Amino acid sequence: MAPGDGIDGGGGGDEYIPRQGSPNDKALGSFTGYGTQQQAWYKSAKRFYEKDSVLEPADREWLGQTYQSVARAHLWGRLVGFAAGFGADFAYQAMRLRSRQGVNLSRSFLFGVAGTVVGTYQCGLYAYWRALESVAPVERYDDLEEDGGAAARRRRHEVLQLLRDSMPAVWADYFNKTARDPSLRMPDPHVLWQGILRGERPNMPMYRHESLAQSPMARLTSPPDLRPVQHPAGPAPVEASARPANEDPFSAEITEPSNSLSAWDRVRQQNSIPQTSGDSWDQVRRRSMGGFSGPAPPNTDREQNEFDELLNAERRGIWDEIDGPK
Questions:
Q1: Around 245, how many Cα atoms within 13 Å sit in the side-chain half-sphere?
Q2: CB 66: neighbour CB atoms within 10 A?
Q3: Residues 6 or more apart from 102 whose CB is under 8 A from it?
Q4: Do 113 and 78 meet the contact criterion of CB atoms below 8 Å apart?
Q5: Chain center to CA of 64
Q6: Closest CA to 81 of 119, 50, 110
Q7: Which of 60, 134, 198, 268 could form an S-S bond across to 273 if both were Cys, CB 3.0 to 4.6 Å?
């Protein structure tokens, strides 16, 4: 056997030496430093891709339902196996002594764990063999080409033989998703490996973030010494321009004098209103402080004077009514 033949790579060495003229020279010729485990992953992925690429949507739906039934068989096997193993000691004591006394719980728990393992394996294997026999190819004694039904049975049978009953929940999820969206199928491992050798990181979110990443078909996407992707440095963020000082008309604090007009000054200028020194809040403060420091300056506005006289007359009339005639 030439070095590298078989699943384990052969020869016991860590470096894969391809045969002369092998079609996998370009794909596996650069496996130096990856060891026999990576070689086995690549070969498993290659075999699965050859079977998976010829499946039709109906085949994928059938395989998804089949592996769902195997997963349910695993679940029922665990439950029944644990119940049988854990309750065996109770049943034995009840039949022998007509009592539950003398039952060792630790021993019953160990029997339950053993029953879980045995039940899971046996029930899953039974469901798998039933599905495998249902699509077993029928022997033909003529030279006619196989029809569509026979071809579908052959494709499903080959996939079941390759994957067996391991990870049924994972494969059920994979085939159900790929039946609805063919773009989620596993890519060609040869093309994928060539990209890895060029330093490209595979873009496979379905396999990277889900439990399917633990299968040999997806481990090839993350070799141990794959260098990270070098993201190009983007342009430096543009800093926001500083806001001009004294832009807020309600700001009482003036950081630095500005030669340009403020927003309110521009509004006053457009409406032909004479400008006053200071902003509005400064004027309010000066008027308030002037009321406490001394008498207010006389109001020369005629309308304001008339209004003050009417207000005073009204006040005097109200007080006269309250005091009454003297």
A1: 8
A2: 24
A3: 93
A4: no
A5: 23
A6: 119
A7: 268
